[in-house]
Recover the amino acids of this structure.
């Protein structure tokens, strides 16, 4: 299972770490068997490019979509599932 389609995620807190900022989101209705808590890391370098609230929102949304929906990745990797590789 995956996070319910069109799930609402509410930003609840953040933690400053050596790697960057961990954003904490909670979904009140994530779907059967799915966790309610989700975290996404934004590095200091990524955050340094942000100058507006809209840019931050877009960055965090894109990161969540990548992590939770494999946005921009799934179409490349799904076709690879089940294939074998031979390495020398």
């Amino acid at each position: 299972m995956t996070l319910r389609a069109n799930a609402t995620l509410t930003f609840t807190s953040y933690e400053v770490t050596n790697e960057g900022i961990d954003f904490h989101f909670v979904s009140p209705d994530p779907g059967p068997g799915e966790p309610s808590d989700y975290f996404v890391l934004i590095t200091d370098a990524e955050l340094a490019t942000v100058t507006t609230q809209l840019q931050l929102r877009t960055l965090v949304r894109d990161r969540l979509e990548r992590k939770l929906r494999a946005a921009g990745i799934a179409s490349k990797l799904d076709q690879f599932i089940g294939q074998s590789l031979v390495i020398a």
